[in-house]
């Protein structure tokens, strides 16, 4: 089983062009909406609501926007590599160029937190973010995110 088994091969954006945080959230919401069957606005509003609590920019150019949604039947992940880094109000002040969207069913509870922890752990793998930044190919990016050897 892949480490990030909730990442869909169609949910990989290897060269997303956006000019800011809100546009990035809109674009990933629009793409996710097509794949999970929920409205783009529902996803976008959930992400904005979460960002109001504090930035999901975790540092080192990475952000993990996430939210829980009614009507979603599974945990869903989407990865995007941005063409140009943007201000995401990250904790370390660095601009963000790697986004991992994580959506969970409203009642996911601990499963949502476990999935978030897994994403954060994968993105901390030595050399992984550099490999993400170096590719412009969706298939290669999907492989980078899913074919890692399992860590403890």
Describe the structure in your own words.
- By secondary structure, this protein is of the alpha/beta class.
- Helix content is 39%, strand content 26%.
- The protein is built from five helices and six strands, in the order βααβββββααα.
- The protein has helices spanning 21-36, 40-53, 110-123, 128-134, 138-146; strands at 7-16, 57-59, 62-63, 66-69, 76-86, 96-105.
- A hairpin with a 2-residue loop joins β2 and β3.
* Category by helix and strand content: alpha/beta
- Cα radius of gyration in angstroms: 14 Å
Mean pLDDT score, rounded? 92
Question: What about the largest sheet?
Answer: 6 strands, mixed
Number of strands: 6
What's the shape?
A: globular
Please report which band the strand proportion falls in: under 5%, 5-15%, 15-25%, 25-35%, 35-45% or over 45%. Answer: 25-35%
State the end-to-end CA separation: 14 Å
* Uncertain residue segments: none
Helix/strand order: EHHEEEEEHHH
* Distinct helical segment count: 5
Helix content: 25-40%
How would you summarize what this structure contains?
With 152 residues, this protein is of the alpha/beta class. The protein is 39% helix and 26% strand.
């Amino acid at each position: 089983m892949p480490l990030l088994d909730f990442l869909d091969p169609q949910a990989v954006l290897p060269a997303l062009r956006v000019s800011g945080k809100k546009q990035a959230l809109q674009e990933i919401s629009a793409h996710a909406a097509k794949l999970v069957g929920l409205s783009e606005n529902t996803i976008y509003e959930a992400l904005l609501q979460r960002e109001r609590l504090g930035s999901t920019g975790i540092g080192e150019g990475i952000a993990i926007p996430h939210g829980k949604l009614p009507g979603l039947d599974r945990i869903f992940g989407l990865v995007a590599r941005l063409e140009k880094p943007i201000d995401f109000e990250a904790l370390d002040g660095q601009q963000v160029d790697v986004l991992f969207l994580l959506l969970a069913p409203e009642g996911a509870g601990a499963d949502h937190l476990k999935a978030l922890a897994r994403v954060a752990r994968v993105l901390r793998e030595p050399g992984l973010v550099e490999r993400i930044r170096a590719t412009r190919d969706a298939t290669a990016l999907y492989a980078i995110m899913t074919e890692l050897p399992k860590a403890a």
